[in-house]
Amino acid sequence: MNLANCSICDDLGVLAPNTTHNPSAGAIPCECRMAKRKEWLVRNANIPSRYQDAVLGNYETGWRGCSESQTMAKVFAQKFVDEYLTLSSGQSVLFHGGIGTGKTHLGVGILRGLIEKYGVPCYFFDQTESFEMLKLSYGSDDPRDTKKIIGPSLEAEVLLLDDLGLMKLSDWGMTTVSHILTTRYNRRLTTILTTNYPLTKPEGSTDYTLGERITERLVSRLKQMCTLVEVKGRDFREIIQRSIQHG
Ligand SMILES: [Zn+2]
Protein backbone atom coordinates (compact mmCIF):
# COMPACT_ATOMS: atom_id res chain seq x y z
CA MET A 1 0.00 0.00 0.00
CA ASN A 2 1.34 3.44 -0.95
CA LEU A 3 0.93 5.87 1.95
CA ALA A 4 2.47 8.83 0.12
CA ASN A 5 0.18 11.73 -0.86
CA CYS A 6 1.85 12.06 -4.23
CA SER A 7 1.81 8.91 -6.31
CA ILE A 8 4.18 10.45 -8.86
CA CYS A 9 7.18 11.13 -6.62
CA ASP A 10 6.26 9.29 -3.38
CA ASP A 11 6.45 12.69 -1.63
CA LEU A 12 10.11 13.20 -2.52
CA GLY A 13 9.17 16.41 -4.34
CA VAL A 14 11.54 15.59 -7.19
CA LEU A 15 11.72 13.08 -10.00
CA ALA A 16 14.86 11.27 -11.12
CA PRO A 17 16.55 13.11 -13.98
CA ASN A 18 16.49 11.69 -17.45
CA THR A 19 20.20 11.17 -18.06
CA THR A 20 19.87 9.23 -21.30
CA HIS A 21 20.43 12.29 -23.46
CA ASN A 22 22.03 14.59 -20.92
CA PRO A 23 24.23 12.85 -18.34
CA SER A 24 24.46 16.01 -16.21
CA ALA A 25 20.66 16.61 -16.05
CA GLY A 26 19.45 17.57 -12.58
CA ALA A 27 16.46 16.24 -10.69
CA ILE A 28 13.11 17.52 -11.97
CA PRO A 29 10.73 19.16 -9.46
CA CYS A 30 7.47 17.19 -9.20
CA GLU A 31 4.21 18.98 -9.94
CA CYS A 32 3.10 18.38 -6.32
CA ARG A 33 5.90 20.69 -5.17
CA MET A 34 4.49 23.53 -7.28
CA ALA A 35 1.00 22.82 -5.90
CA LYS A 36 2.35 23.02 -2.34
CA ARG A 37 4.17 26.24 -3.14
CA LYS A 38 0.96 27.78 -4.52
CA GLU A 39 -0.97 26.78 -1.39
CA TRP A 40 1.76 28.33 0.70
CA LEU A 41 1.69 31.53 -1.39
CA VAL A 42 -2.11 31.84 -0.98
CA ARG A 43 -1.82 31.33 2.80
CA ASN A 44 0.90 33.97 3.05
CA ALA A 45 -0.76 36.55 0.81
CA ASN A 46 -2.62 38.05 3.80
CA ILE A 47 -5.95 37.98 1.96
CA PRO A 48 -8.75 38.93 4.44
CA SER A 49 -11.14 36.07 5.20
CA ARG A 50 -13.97 38.04 3.59
CA TYR A 51 -12.19 37.76 0.23
CA GLN A 52 -10.73 34.29 0.75
CA ASP A 53 -12.78 32.79 -2.10
CA ALA A 54 -12.59 35.76 -4.48
CA VAL A 55 -11.17 34.76 -7.86
CA LEU A 56 -11.76 36.32 -11.26
CA GLY A 57 -13.87 33.33 -12.26
CA ASN A 58 -16.52 34.14 -9.65
CA TYR A 59 -16.66 37.89 -10.30
CA GLU A 60 -20.14 37.70 -11.78
CA THR A 61 -20.91 39.93 -14.74
CA GLY A 62 -23.91 38.19 -16.26
CA TRP A 63 -26.51 39.59 -13.86
CA ARG A 64 -29.13 42.21 -14.69
CA GLY A 65 -27.87 45.62 -13.64
CA CYS A 66 -24.21 44.75 -14.06
CA SER A 67 -22.60 47.73 -15.77
CA GLU A 68 -20.53 47.58 -18.92
CA SER A 69 -17.57 49.03 -17.02
CA GLN A 70 -17.72 46.11 -14.56
CA THR A 71 -17.66 43.66 -17.46
CA MET A 72 -14.75 45.53 -19.07
CA ALA A 73 -12.88 45.69 -15.76
CA LYS A 74 -13.09 41.91 -15.42
CA VAL A 75 -11.84 41.44 -19.00
CA PHE A 76 -8.97 43.81 -18.21
CA ALA A 77 -8.08 41.95 -15.00
CA GLN A 78 -8.01 38.59 -16.78
CA LYS A 79 -5.86 40.01 -19.57
CA PHE A 80 -3.49 41.49 -17.00
CA VAL A 81 -3.01 38.03 -15.46
CA ASP A 82 -2.66 36.29 -18.83
CA GLU A 83 -0.09 38.79 -20.12
CA TYR A 84 1.71 39.42 -16.83
CA LEU A 85 5.00 37.85 -17.90
CA THR A 86 5.27 40.08 -20.96
CA LEU A 87 4.33 43.36 -19.23
CA SER A 88 7.10 45.84 -18.57
CA SER A 89 8.21 45.69 -14.95
CA GLY A 90 6.30 47.80 -12.49
CA GLN A 91 3.10 47.91 -14.60
CA SER A 92 0.43 48.78 -12.07
CA VAL A 93 -3.35 49.15 -11.98
CA LEU A 94 -5.71 51.55 -10.22
CA PHE A 95 -9.34 50.42 -10.00
CA HIS A 96 -11.47 53.45 -9.19
CA GLY A 97 -15.23 53.85 -8.83
CA GLY A 98 -18.07 53.89 -6.37
CA ILE A 99 -18.46 51.78 -3.26
CA GLY A 100 -19.63 48.19 -3.68
CA THR A 101 -18.72 47.67 -7.34
CA GLY A 102 -16.37 44.77 -6.61
CA LYS A 103 -12.99 46.49 -7.01
CA THR A 104 -11.40 44.56 -4.14
CA HIS A 105 -12.75 41.31 -5.57
CA LEU A 106 -11.04 42.14 -8.89
CA GLY A 107 -7.78 43.01 -7.11
CA VAL A 108 -7.78 39.80 -5.07
CA GLY A 109 -8.74 37.92 -8.25
CA ILE A 110 -5.59 39.24 -9.93
CA LEU A 111 -3.43 38.12 -6.97
CA ARG A 112 -5.01 34.66 -6.98
CA GLY A 113 -4.61 34.39 -10.75
CA LEU A 114 -0.92 35.33 -10.63
CA ILE A 115 -0.27 32.81 -7.85
CA GLU A 116 -2.18 30.05 -9.61
CA LYS A 117 -0.74 30.67 -13.06
CA TYR A 118 2.89 31.52 -12.31
CA GLY A 119 3.52 31.13 -8.57
CA VAL A 120 4.11 34.88 -8.14
CA PRO A 121 4.53 35.99 -4.47
CA CYS A 122 1.67 38.43 -3.78
CA TYR A 123 0.57 40.38 -0.71
CA PHE A 124 -2.63 42.13 0.40
CA PHE A 125 -1.84 45.30 2.35
CA ASP A 126 -4.60 45.66 4.89
CA GLN A 127 -4.31 49.29 6.03
CA THR A 128 -6.54 49.04 9.07
CA GLU A 129 -4.82 45.90 10.36
CA SER A 130 -1.31 47.16 9.62
CA PHE A 131 -1.82 50.51 11.32
CA GLU A 132 -3.32 48.88 14.39
CA MET A 133 -0.20 46.72 14.59
CA LEU A 134 2.06 49.71 14.01
CA LYS A 135 0.34 51.65 16.78
CA LEU A 136 0.81 48.73 19.15
CA SER A 137 4.48 48.44 18.23
CA TYR A 138 5.07 52.16 18.74
CA GLY A 139 6.03 51.84 22.35
CA SER A 140 8.59 49.17 21.63
CA ASP A 141 11.21 51.45 19.96
CA ASP A 142 12.30 48.43 18.00
CA PRO A 143 12.62 49.29 14.29
CA ARG A 144 12.45 45.57 13.53
CA ASP A 145 8.74 45.62 14.47
CA THR A 146 7.93 48.27 11.87
CA LYS A 147 10.04 46.43 9.33
CA LYS A 148 8.17 43.21 10.01
CA ILE A 149 4.79 44.90 9.48
CA ILE A 150 5.67 47.03 6.44
CA GLY A 151 8.38 44.78 4.96
CA PRO A 152 6.14 42.42 2.96
CA SER A 153 4.40 45.41 1.34
CA LEU A 154 7.72 46.82 0.15
CA GLU A 155 9.08 43.50 -1.07
CA ALA A 156 6.19 41.45 -2.50
CA GLU A 157 6.46 41.05 -6.25
CA VAL A 158 2.82 42.14 -6.53
CA LEU A 159 1.00 44.15 -3.87
CA LEU A 160 -2.71 44.89 -3.52
CA LEU A 161 -3.22 48.18 -1.73
CA ASP A 162 -6.93 48.27 -1.06
CA ASP A 163 -9.05 51.33 -0.35
CA LEU A 164 -6.58 54.11 -1.10
CA GLY A 165 -7.68 57.38 0.49
CA LEU A 166 -8.98 55.62 3.59
CA MET A 167 -6.33 57.42 5.61
CA LYS A 168 -6.64 61.16 5.91
CA LEU A 169 -3.68 63.31 4.89
CA SER A 170 -3.09 64.32 8.45
CA ASP A 171 -2.75 60.70 9.52
CA TRP A 172 0.77 59.40 9.95
CA GLY A 173 -0.63 56.27 8.29
CA MET A 174 -0.73 58.25 5.06
CA THR A 175 3.02 58.80 5.28
CA THR A 176 3.44 55.04 5.41
CA VAL A 177 1.20 54.53 2.37
CA SER A 178 3.16 57.17 0.48
CA HIS A 179 6.46 55.52 1.50
CA ILE A 180 5.21 52.10 0.28
CA LEU A 181 4.10 53.51 -3.09
CA THR A 182 7.29 55.49 -3.69
CA THR A 183 9.51 52.53 -2.75
CA ARG A 184 7.61 50.19 -5.05
CA TYR A 185 7.70 52.72 -7.86
CA ASN A 186 11.47 53.06 -7.53
CA ARG A 187 11.90 49.28 -7.40
CA ARG A 188 9.64 48.87 -10.45
CA LEU A 189 7.31 46.48 -8.63
CA THR A 190 3.68 45.96 -9.63
CA THR A 191 1.01 47.43 -7.35
CA ILE A 192 -2.73 46.93 -7.73
CA LEU A 193 -4.74 49.69 -6.05
CA THR A 194 -8.40 50.33 -5.41
CA THR A 195 -10.10 53.54 -4.38
CA ASN A 196 -13.66 54.74 -3.86
CA TYR A 197 -12.59 58.36 -4.45
CA PRO A 198 -13.02 59.94 -7.89
CA LEU A 199 -9.96 61.22 -9.76
CA THR A 200 -11.81 64.39 -10.81
CA LYS A 201 -14.59 66.16 -9.00
CA PRO A 202 -18.00 65.54 -10.55
CA GLU A 203 -19.79 68.80 -11.29
CA GLY A 204 -21.55 70.23 -8.28
CA SER A 205 -20.11 67.55 -6.00
CA THR A 206 -18.77 68.38 -2.58
CA ASP A 207 -17.21 64.94 -2.09
CA TYR A 208 -13.46 64.63 -1.81
CA THR A 209 -11.40 63.63 -4.82
CA LEU A 210 -8.52 61.16 -4.46
CA GLY A 211 -6.07 64.03 -4.86
CA GLU A 212 -7.65 65.87 -1.94
CA ARG A 213 -7.27 62.73 0.15
CA ILE A 214 -3.70 61.73 -0.74
CA THR A 215 -2.22 64.85 -2.47
CA GLU A 216 -2.18 65.64 -6.18
CA ARG A 217 1.51 64.81 -6.23
CA LEU A 218 0.86 61.20 -5.27
CA VAL A 219 -2.02 60.98 -7.74
CA SER A 220 0.23 62.10 -10.60
CA ARG A 221 2.77 59.47 -9.50
CA LEU A 222 -0.03 56.87 -9.66
CA LYS A 223 -1.00 58.05 -13.13
CA GLN A 224 2.59 57.42 -14.25
CA MET A 225 2.72 53.88 -12.89
CA CYS A 226 -0.87 52.70 -13.34
CA THR A 227 -3.42 51.81 -15.96
CA LEU A 228 -6.58 53.51 -14.69
CA VAL A 229 -9.62 51.24 -14.75
CA GLU A 230 -12.98 52.72 -13.86
CA VAL A 231 -15.48 50.34 -12.21
CA LYS A 232 -18.84 52.06 -12.25
CA GLY A 233 -22.12 50.55 -11.25
CA ARG A 234 -24.76 50.40 -8.62
CA ASP A 235 -23.66 49.22 -5.21
CA PHE A 236 -24.67 45.57 -5.36
CA ARG A 237 -24.83 45.37 -1.58
CA GLU A 238 -27.57 47.99 -1.83
CA ILE A 239 -29.31 46.02 -4.57
CA ILE A 240 -29.26 42.84 -2.50
CA GLN A 241 -30.63 44.79 0.45
CA ARG A 242 -33.44 46.18 -1.67
CA SER A 243 -34.34 42.86 -3.23
CA ILE A 244 -34.58 41.39 0.27
CA GLN A 245 -36.86 44.22 1.39
CA HIS A 246 -39.12 43.83 -1.62
CA GLY A 247 -39.11 40.08 -1.47
ZN1 LIG B 1 5.08 14.62 -6.28
- What small molecules does the structure contain? zinc ion
Largest sheet, order of strands side by side?
Answer: 4-5-6-3-7
The tally of helices reads 9
Shape: globular
Major β-sheet, in short? 5 strands, parallel
How would you name the CATH homologous superfamily?
P-loop containing nucleotide triphosphate hydrolases
Strand content: 5-15%
Radius of gyration: 21 Å
Q: Give me the CATH architecture, please.
A: 3-Layer(aba) Sandwich
Tell me the series of helices and strands, N- to C-terminal.
EEHHEHEHHEHEHHEH
CATH topology: Rossmann fold
* Residues in helix, %: 40-55%
The protein's oligomeric status is single chain
Number of strands: 7
Topology:
Layout: E1 14-15, E2 28-29, H1 31-43, H2 68-82, E3 92-96, H3 103-118, E4 122-125, H4 127-137, H5 143-155, E5 158-161, H6 172-186, E6 190-195, H7 210-214, H8 216-225, E7 226-230, H9 236-245
Helix pairs in contact: 2-3, 4-5, 5-6, 6-8
Zinc ion binds near residues 6, 8, 9, 30 and 32.
Description:
The chain is of the alpha/beta class. It has a single domain (26-245), classed as P-loop containing nucleotide triphosphate hydrolases (Rossmann fold). It is built from nine helices and seven strands; from the N terminus they run ββααβαβααβαβααβα. The strands form two sheets. Strands 4-5-6-3-7 form a five-stranded parallel beta sheet, sandwiched between helices. β5, α6 and β6 (190-195) form a beta-alpha-beta unit. The N and C termini lie far apart (56 Å). The mean pLDDT is 87. Bound molecules: zinc ion (ZN). The site of zinc ion has 5 residues, from loops.
